[in-house]
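Write out the 3D structure for:
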Amino acid sequence: MKPAETKEERGVIILPEVDYSYVLDEEQYKPGEDLVREGHHGDWTGVILDGRADVFKATDNGPVLIGRMGPGAIIGDLSILTQRRNVRTATVRARTPLTLGILDLQQVYWEFVRLPQDLRLFLESMNRRLGAANHSLMALYAGTLNPGEKFRGQDRPLPLDKEFGTARWIRSGNATLGRPVGSALLPLATLSSGDHLGALPFVDLGQEPHGALVFVSPDFSAEPLDVQDLESSFILASSMVQHFTACVAAMIRETCRRATVLFQETLPPPEKPAPLPKKTPLSSSKPPLS
């Protein structure tokens, strides 16, 4: 099954229309109104049916823009299902007149808890990646990201053509995903026991093996992940579970894209190559006849 198509033109996450049978009610917002506020509590979630919204995180220097959403994007991440966490981690503000569909969260929750264990574990791992990507982005804004510290003790990269040929579950140690940016490495996420590594056919996270290198600790170990079984479980999952998955994957890709652009701006400009020595022009005069 192919991943759900998303549009991230100019950083706006737009997904296919949600199954409207999950929508309990609709709310209207004017430009500048907050749908949710960072730090506030809320036991509901919604999907944008029409309009655009900006996502902000608070910093010591004021709020910073970390994402933009359009139709099909869900407010919040999978933690409202995986942990029943109801503290908002960001502020979502309408940028245009916006229609929000309030979702039947109880129905989605029961569909989630009935998923096969490996699929639930994968979705929880994916949600942790989103949190790690947001952490790296905010550290870049704060000027506190130290790439050298993130990769310390993890100087054994996994060869992507041999060791990294299949998806895996991490069983011990940890792995840090690093995206080459110029001559530097941008740390995207640090994964540990219970997390997955590797590309899967039904979701695109935009990271390893093509969008990031993998560096592992000396005590790292992993075992193969049954990709076929996981994909079969995903195909049988409800349309809303699939929609949540596609939305979180799009958030991961967009957050990493923003971090990459910001990280690139912090790097010193590449040194200009030294100019080539000028060639001495050949004389066009003919030698005198003897």
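The first helix runs from residue 79 to 82.
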